[in-house]
Amino acid sequence: xxxxxxxxxxxxxxxxxxxxxxxxxxxxxxxxxxxxxxxxxxxxxxxxxxxxxxxxxxxxxxxxxxxxxxxxxxxxxxxxxxxxxxxxxxxxxxxxxxxxxxxxxxxxxxxxxxxxxxxxxxxxxxxxxxxxxxxxxxxxxxxxxxxxxxxxx
Length: 153
Description:
54% helix; globular
């Protein structure tokens, strides 16, 4: 649960700072990265803007991802990735409940959308899950030792 909490705190803190102090766009790294305050009423890339079901679909998917490790043994890398995805989704849902939109502010040259800290962790978490699957990692028991199957007799 560490990563869920960490992501939510970092996301909400960054959005609070942006809303309070970011009056006009500014370059953090000239020509590559800049910060600009926007309000996203849709989901990825602003799709499905103002659709009433977006919040409920997001809530259902987040709940299922959070519950997944309860029903399926996952590797440590997968669990960390899932926590990052869930934390990012919750961070964006908090915005949707509070404001009716998500605060986005990070803009990178040649990337087609403006995003936020939660979106970044959702992406990183997805990459960690994908890496875990590609590496074929085994699951681990709750005590941290590798789960071994019993020999068949």
